[in-house]
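Many introductory courses stop at the sequence. We go one step further.
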Amino acid sequence: MWCVGLPDLILETEQILLYQQQLGEWDNLNHLIICKSTNQACIIDPFDGKYWLDFCQALKVEITEIWLTHTHWDHIKGVEELFHASANQPILRCHILEQQRGYESTRATWWNHHPLSSVTEKFGAIEFTIHCTPGHSPGHVTIIGAGIIITGDCLFLYSCGRTDLFGGDQETQRQSVVYLNDIFKTTPMESLILPGHQYELEDGHIPTKLKLDVFLAENLAIQSAHDTALWNSLPFLSFDDSMAEQARRQKAQQS
């Protein structure tokens, strides 16, 4: 069992409060956005529903929306608990292409734009762009706005998400990284990159956020995505483990 304290307030602007907390044995990073003008909260990829409900009740704010970057179990684990324990049912938003990996929800309001494109989504008084960036999963999205970039498992701070899970695809991931690199060029460089997991680096440092300019200079996936051969040689795109084996079995059953 993991020890959990209060989340870190990592950004405050005139529009938002942004809290971050690592939850679970997979080092998931959860992000809570609070719209200051409406006192509403949006939780991204909740691992622990009770944790965020208790925190928001202490702040006297209400979770009105749940946004999913994708639907792997560790990014949706707290969703049902949030619905069952909330006095008012929050809105659940997810991309419809996640149905390709078997995710179904009668609660979901589906984004349905094409891969490598975006739609505008309003939360409270704030607008975000929701970019469909598949590769780690079929309907993965990246969320940009209000000085933050929530990359989920599409991009980590120094690498990117694996592509050998069910519904993943290595070349599709490369195209998404190229697409995001172009989007980032027109995004304020002081924006914070916020990934879906934290990972320890070789020097022992465990970062949980980076400014966009540093990220662009140091991320191995970003640096490799325009060269197919270099991209295909990256060591973190696939692994020989039980999750990869399960994905192969699921793919065989579908074919």
